[in-house]
């Protein structure tokens, strides 16, 4: 049992972070956010494709990188951390199925939770459930190949047809870096996609960690009453809570990537949503009046976290999935409740 | 990242499962919480069974995978908890193993593993609980002995313990963190008075210990004189880092039992309550994953857990209390009946955010040691 990142996984994570720092310096964020309707930066998109972001899990003989769900999660954590714009999850999931998605030539979006992001900028609107065309090859003995984890199985992955986003109506998106359309019909109907849930949770994890860093840095630098506000317990405890939420979400997201268990994936989305949203809110609070301005980047993280939290499974859906798993585990549990073991 | 068991771990799991299946049905009935001699006899009997079967050392196991398998399997089977062996197995033992001389390891580790000797913890004092470094119990050199005078509080198992891991001030003039030493105090020494304290759960779980010129050989000091604070941090890192890990599995079983109850009494049909239970299931599952992570990291870091244990301890202690609050919603009026199950556990859960460092102290540790925020400030 080894629950640590390998050297290769660490290297992948830091290389992705360096790439994103080059492609998307933080000061570019604010400029983009203030410039009206955002356009998708195709140069950045091509650079992400070049780095293997979309083809990460495609087999090498299909032109992919041949890695698995744990690696995809590490990369999407960095994408979330950097507030990278665009329908990253949808395009990644379309790679190998929609021509040009893996190479970044085709930008793919999809409807999710009653919304569709980047509709006007995308080339293809991915359809709904269909037979998996490009799921990882089964390993010896019929098991899924190692590392396929949370991104294998499930009914998703059809061709780029289907209902898409017919009748979609634009709305004025709360996130200035994510244009949104509403799609008609119920927001939650039928099964949710575990692969999309896992990668979105990874992005949320990135946000949770990033805003914790921003809050801690500000708390160390900003002085009030003659000393850094981070020396005050009230501020310290907010920061500590942020780290705790992040690390629990990290354990949940990484574990779901390894086990591929749908209930763990739902739980990972639930905890990562909470961590991203609550941490971003606390980060605004720690920034004080500055946090309420457009000039501080903090609001951009919070707004993106809100958008991702809307994608399925939402908190209620995830909690229902977890409740179902609990009921099943309760059926298997034969022992008596564990008596008081305190002290 | 890999949760699969190695061949060694899988073999160990199968062997342990079969041993538990034959051993647990032959255990004597559990003593009542107030029967301290009975509890000692029961807990040390269990420890001896583990020892004879070759499992006693698993809390100190080098391979984290085997330890996690041991914790998971014993909890899943409903095996007894470490109970009265807690301080010896999870605090004093690891500390002596890490910091003791060969003679000290020889003297104390075997009896702990065999269940022959019980330890208690003499860290807290009336004015030195969370602010541990302000402790005042003093030890004065007298030949080959220290003469120890002062008092300790919140000492679990003091009534039945053979040894106490005792923090004393050996240099009153030094900086408050630098004048402390870590001693093994024999609990049968003259000059020791133990006064039980009644908890809000109605049980006498812990005690006050008064020390009046108690003689403790200098040879019982673990670590250098006045270096006790560093030794203590080693002890506490074990407490926060790994001592609670098995309880997460226990909470998962408790939650499963609660779900059974909710389905029996119809409360499961309330979507808000059902989702609350699902939310807790997610929380405890993630805490178990965090545990696996921490144990793996502790191994990679040389065996002593890092301050990441505070992250676990803070979230776990809160989740445990939320579990019993949800239980009260499921149980309705029964939750207020001390003769039914759950009510006493709900009360006991209140200690988790206080014992072993309050949640407020854990937040300070996280903020200062993990996030690097400045010390001090109100």
UniProtKB/TrEMBL annotation, chain A:
SUPFAM superfamilies: Acyl-CoA dehydrogenase C-terminal domain-like (SSF47203), Acyl-CoA dehydrogenase NM domain-like (SSF56645)
Keyword field: FAD, Flavoprotein, Oxidoreductase
GO molecular function terms listed in the Swiss-Prot or TrEMBL record: acyl-CoA dehydrogenase activity; flavin adenine dinucleotide binding
Region (Disordered): 125-191
UniProt-recorded name of the protein: Acyl-CoA dehydrogenase
Domain Acyl-CoA dehydrogenase/oxidase C-terminal: 198-311
Cofactors demanded by this protein: FAD
Top-level lineage group: Bacteria
InterPro entries: AcylCo_DH-like_C, AcylCo_DH/oxidase_C, AcylCoA_DH/ox_N, AcylCoA_DH/ox_N_sf, AcylCoA_DH/oxidase_NM_dom_sf
Feature: compositional bias, Gly residues: 140-165
Annotated family: Belongs to the acyl-CoA dehydrogenase family.
Domain Acyl-CoA dehydrogenase/oxidase N-terminal: 6-92
From TrEMBL, chain B:
Keyword line: FAD, Flavoprotein, Oxidoreductase
Pfam families per the UniProt record, alphabetical: Acyl-CoA_dh_1, Acyl-CoA_dh_M, Acyl-CoA_dh_N
Residues annotated as domain Acyl-CoA dehydrogenase/oxidase N-terminal: 6-116
Membrane-spanning intervals of the chain: none
Residue ranges of domain Acyl-CoA oxidase/dehydrogenase middle in the record: 120-213
GO CC term (a single one): plasma membrane
Classification via Gene3D superfamilies: Acyl-CoA dehydrogenase/oxidase, N-terminal domain (1.10.540.10), Butyryl-CoA Dehydrogenase, subunit A, domain 2 (2.40.110.10), Butyryl-CoA Dehydrogenase, subunit A, domain 3 (1.20.140.10)
A single GO molecular function term of this UniProt record: flavin adenine dinucleotide binding
Required cofactor names: FAD
Acyl-CoA dehydrogenase/oxidase C-terminal domain mapped to chain residues: 226-371
Family: Belongs to the acyl-CoA dehydrogenase family.
Protein name (record): Acyl-CoA dehydrogenase
Lineage: Bacteria, Bacillati, Actinomycetota, Actinomycetes, Kitasatosporales
């Amino acid at each position: 049992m080894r629950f640590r990142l390998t050297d290769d996984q660490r290297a992948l994570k830091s290389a992705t972070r360096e790439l994103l720092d080059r492609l998307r310096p933080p000061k570019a964020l604010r400029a983009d956010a203030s410039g009206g309707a955002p356009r998708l930066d195709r140069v950045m998109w091509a650079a992400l494709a070049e780095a293997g972001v979309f083809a990460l899990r495609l087999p090498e003989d299909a032109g992919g990188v041949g890695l698995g769900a744990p690696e995809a999660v590490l990369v999407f954590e960095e994408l979330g951390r950097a507030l990278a714009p665009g329908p990253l999850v949808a395009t990644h999931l379309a790679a190998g199925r929609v021509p040009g998605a893996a190479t970044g030539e085709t930008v793919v979006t999809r409807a999710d939770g009653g919304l569709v992001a980047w509709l006007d900028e995308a080339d293809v609107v991915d359809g709904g459930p269909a037979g998996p065309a490009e799921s990882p090859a089964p390993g010896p003995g019929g098991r899924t190949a190692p590392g396929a984890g949370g991104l294998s199985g499930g009914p998703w992955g059809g061709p780029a047809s289907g209902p898409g986003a017919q009748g979609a109506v634009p709305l004025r998106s709360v996130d200035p870096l994510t244009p949104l359309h509403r799609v008609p019909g119920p927001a939650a109907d039928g099964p949710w996609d575990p692969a999309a849930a896992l990668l979105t949770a990874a992005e949320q994890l990135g946000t949770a960690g990033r805003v914790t860093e921003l809050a801690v840095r500000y708390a160390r630098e900003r002085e009030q009453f003659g000393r850094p506000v981070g020396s005050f317990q009230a501020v310290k405890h907010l920061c500590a809570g942020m780290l705790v939420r992040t690390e629990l979400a990290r354990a949940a997201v990484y574990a779901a990537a390894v086990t591929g268990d749908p209930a763990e994936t739902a739980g990972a989305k639930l905890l990562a949503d909470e961590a991203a949203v609550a941490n971003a809110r606390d980060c605004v609070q720690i920034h004080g009046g500055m946090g309420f301005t457009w000039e501080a980047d903090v609001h951009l993280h919070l707004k993106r976290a809100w958008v991702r939290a809307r994608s399925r499974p939402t908190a209620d859906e995830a909690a229902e999935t977890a409740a179902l798993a609990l009921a099943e585990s309760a059926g298997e549990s034969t022992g008596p409740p564990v008596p008081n073991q305190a002290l | 990242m890999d949760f699969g068991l190695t061949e060694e771990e899988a073999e160990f799991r199968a062997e342990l499962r079969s041993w538990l299946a034959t051993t647990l049905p032959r255990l004597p009935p559990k003593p009542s919480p107030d029967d301290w001699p009975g509890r000692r006899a029961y807990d040390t009997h269990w420890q001896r069974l583990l020892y004879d079967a070759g499992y006693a050392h698993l809390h100190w196991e080098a391979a984290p995978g085997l330890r996690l398998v041991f914790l998971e399997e014993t909890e899943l089977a409903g095996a007894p908890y470490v109970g009265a062996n807690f301080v010896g197995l999870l605090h004093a033992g690891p500390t002596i193993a890490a910091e003791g001389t060969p003679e000290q390891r020889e003297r104390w580790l075997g009896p702990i593993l065999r269940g022959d000797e019980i330890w208690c913890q003499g860290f807290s004092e009336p004015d030195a609980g969370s602010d541990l470094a302000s402790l005042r119990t003093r030890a004065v050199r007298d030949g080959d002995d220290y003469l120890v005078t002062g008092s300790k509080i919140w000492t679990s198992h003091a009534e039945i313990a053979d040894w106490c891991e005792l923090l004393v001030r050996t240099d009153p003039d030094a900086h408050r963190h630098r004048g402390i030493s870590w001693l093994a105090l024999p609990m049968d020494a003259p000059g020791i008075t133990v006064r039980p304290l009644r908890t809000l759960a109605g049980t006498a779980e812990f005690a006050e210990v008064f020390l009046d010129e108690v003689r403790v050989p200098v040879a019982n000091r673990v670590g250098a004189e006045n270096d006790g604070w560093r030794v203590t941090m080693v002890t506490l890192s074990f407490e926060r880092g790994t001592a609670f890990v098995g309880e997460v599995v226990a909470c998962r079983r408790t939650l499963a039992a609660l779900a059974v109850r909710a389905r029996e009494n119809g409360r499961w049909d309330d979507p808000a309550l059902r989702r609350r239970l699902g939310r807790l299931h997610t929380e405890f599952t993630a805490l178990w994953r965090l545990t696996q992570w921490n144990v793996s990291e502790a191994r990679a870091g040389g065996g002593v857990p890092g301050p990441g244990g505070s992250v676990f301890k803070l979230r776990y202690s809160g989740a445990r209390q939320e579990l019993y609050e949800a239980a009260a919603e499921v149980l309705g009026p029964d939750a207020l009946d001390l003769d039914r199950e759950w009510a006493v556990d709900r009360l006991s859960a209140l200690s988790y955010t206080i014992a072993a460092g309050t949640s407020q102290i854990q937040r300070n540790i996280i903020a200062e040691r993990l996030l690097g925020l400045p010390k001090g400030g109100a």
